[in-house]
Amino acid sequence: MPELPEVETTRRGIEPHVLGRTVVALEVHEPRLRWLVPETLAAQLVGQRVERAGRRAKYLLLELTRGTLLWHLGMSGSLRVLPADAPPGLHDHVDLVLDSGCLLRFNDPRRFGSLHYTTEDPSGHPLLADLGPEPFDKEFDADYLWRITRRRRVAIKVLLMNSHLVVGVGNIYANEALFRARVRPGRAASSLTRIEAQRLVRAIRAVLKVAIRAGGTTLRDYVGADGNPGYFRQKLYVYERKGKPCRVCRTALRAITQGQRSSYYCPTCQK
Ligand SMILES: [Zn+2]
Predict the structure, then answer these.
(1) How far apart are CA 117 and CA 254, in angstroms?
(2) Which H/E stretch holds residue 209?
(3) CB 53 within 8 A of CB 47
(4) CA distances from 70 to 53, 73, 223, 271 (A)
(5) Closest by alpha carbon to 226, among 10, 65, 27?
(6) What distance in Å separates the CA atoms of residue 128 and residue 71, rounded to the nearest whole number?
(7) Ligand 1 centroid vs 187 CA: distance in angstroms?
(8) Which residues pair with 114 in a beta bridge?
(9) Which strands make up the sheet holding 114-118, listed edge to edge?
């Protein structure tokens, strides 16, 4: 499933190919994505220039002349830049054809992705309005994390994965960040100390940064390439390593289930 680093990697990969280009056509081979792609969408987009390729949480935001296209990759989606005459294959559902002779192709086997268009400020769009800050925003600092954890008995890992409080901390990154910050995933959020909050903010940024950088290296020749998830290139300390020795202290790692997701930790390194 594409997480924040994969989406950011995709954004960086497509940016040089779409910026300043004009939409020539939107070819929808399969409109039944998570939400139906409206028939009117093509007519709305054609003739508009791509002014900016942004991202909010896991949404790619293509800012056009008069509006913004919100593109979500869903559970299994990917975007590729291809020559405009490349024939669509299985699961290639949408092509955004540009005046450069290239197209942006959306492939999504499970069809949980989505496309929305708005002429309003996208930050007020119902899909984005209730999201918490980005992990790299100034707003997401130790003070913020400390404040939002004060009255919450929910486990710290569950809190980190709540996108109303902070976006982009998927299961793998929550596990790895908690290890780096030396905090057990099952601890009550309210038990976090100020120092731990500080460590955790830094750890979250660090694991995401490594993943984005790793993803970025696979994008040198993004045209025609598959977007490899960044985390496969990252050395994982705890994620899916139950029973294996901790890379720091050699203690056998443990796993617990929280909110139907697996959490992994080192009983020695993490308090
Ligand atoms: Zn350890």
Answers:
(1) 45
(2) helix 194-217
(3) no
(4) 10, 10, 22, 40
(5) 10
(6) 12
(7) 17
(8) 72
(9) 50-56, 59-64, 68-72, 114-118
Tell me the two tokens of residue 32: 């039944």
Burial of 88 (0-12, 13-18, 19+ CB in 10 A): middle
Tokens of 252: 């056998």
Q: What is the pTM of this model?
A: 0.89
Residues tagged active-site: 2-3, 58, 261
Q: pLDDT tens, position by position, for the chain (271 residues)? A: 788 988 998 999 899 999 999 999 999 999 999 999 999 999 999 999 999 999 999 999 999 999 999 999 998 898 999 999 999 999 999 999 999 999 999 999 999 999 999 999 999 999 999 999 999 999 999 999 999 999 899 999 999 999 999 999 999 999 999 999 999 999 999 999 999 999 999 999 999 998 888 775 444 334 333 444 444 556 899 999 999 999 999 999 999 999 899 999 999 999 9
Q: Residue 7 C-alpha to ligand 1 middle, in angstroms?
A: 31
Nearest-angstrom CA–CA distance, 176 and 202:
12
Ligand 1 centroid distance, CA of 248 (Å): 5
- Tell me the CA–centroid distance for residue 246 and ligand 1, in Å: 5
Q: Which two tokens stand for residue 121?
A: 């400020």
**CB proximity list for 153: less than 8 A, separation 6 or greater:** 188, 189, 190
Q: How far is the CA of 52 from the centre of ligand 1 (A)?
A: 44
Distance 249 CA to ligand 1 centre (A): 4
Point out which residues pair with 256 in neighbouring strands: 263
